[in-house]
Amino acid sequence: MEDNISNMNKFFSSKIEKLALSGKKIFTTEDLAVIWQIPQRRRLIELIKYYLREKRLKSIYKGIYAYGGDYTPYDIAQKLIPLSYISLYTSSQMYGLTFQYYQTVYAVSLKRKKYKIGKQGYFYSRVKEPVFYNQLGLVNNGRYIIADRERTITDCLYVFPRFAFDNLRGVDKEKLLTLARIYDNKSLEKRVEKGKYVRQEKARTDSKKYLKGYLHHYSLRG
User: Could you give the CA distance from residue 176 to residue 189 in angstroms, rounded to a whole number?
Assistant: First the structure.
């Protein structure tokens, strides 16, 4: 009897240890199936329910779970749509390219989508497949994928053509020109070549109006 209890404890402990060793904080049901090597769907769901009851896992969204408490909205964004990366206003803010504050997490994906989890919003903008699958300027930190400074700029100019930046210190102009060519957009290329993306007072107002109109238009479409 004691041996059985000991074996069960080892079984459950080993599953949690595997999550800790993965270095990740947010997992989908499919992630857990692979990490725990449990292909049987019913058995997997029962095990997830057990860890939820024991408060070793936390349900974040349908089919998405957190282990531990030190996860970020960026970790969650990567799992809501796995084929995505953090960019646009979010990475602009992180790199100090813009001085505006945006609570919503903005990402790039192959489809437009929005989510609301508690007070946190997530917004995914669509780009064409050749652009999305081009890895130039994308950084994988092991938990989520994020656009670097230059990819952030070109993504913004592609998705929000009127967007302008507050600070371009440290930007690699040659890399920016190279990145501009992956979008197959002559207008974007010319704007990058001429450096017409630094914010002036009028551009600041136009940029805010454009974002507001873009999000309003999308919300009407559902």
Answer: 9
Can you give the C-alpha Rg of the chain in angstroms? 21
DSSP 8-state secondary structure symbol assigned to residue 142: S
Whether the predicted model's global pTM rises above the 0.90 cut: no
Residues 51 and 97 in one domain: no
Summarize pLDDT for 84-130 with one digit per residue, the tens: 999 999 999 999 999 888 999 999 999 999 999 999 999 999 999 99
- The distance between the two most distant Cα atoms of the chain, rounded to a whole number of Å, is 77
Task: Tell which of 18, 44, 66 closes a domain.
Answer: 66
In this model, does residue 5 exceed pLDDT 70?
A: no
Same domain, 82 and 39: no
CB 109 within 8 A of CB 124: yes
HEC string for 50-116? HHHHCCCCEEEECCEEECCCCCCHHHHHHHHCCCEEECHHHHHHHCCCCCCCCCCEEEEECCCEEEE
Which residues fall within 8 angstroms of residue 148, CB to CB, at 6 or more apart?
137, 138, 139
pLDDT of residue 182 exceeding 50, the answer is yes
Confidence of residue 69 (pLDDT cuts 50, 70, 90): confident
Q: Which domain holds residue 185?
A: 73-221
Residue where a domain terminates, one of 66, 85, 103 = 66
**Partner residues linked to 121 by β-bridges:** 116
Helix (H, G, I), strand (E, B) or coil at 1: coil
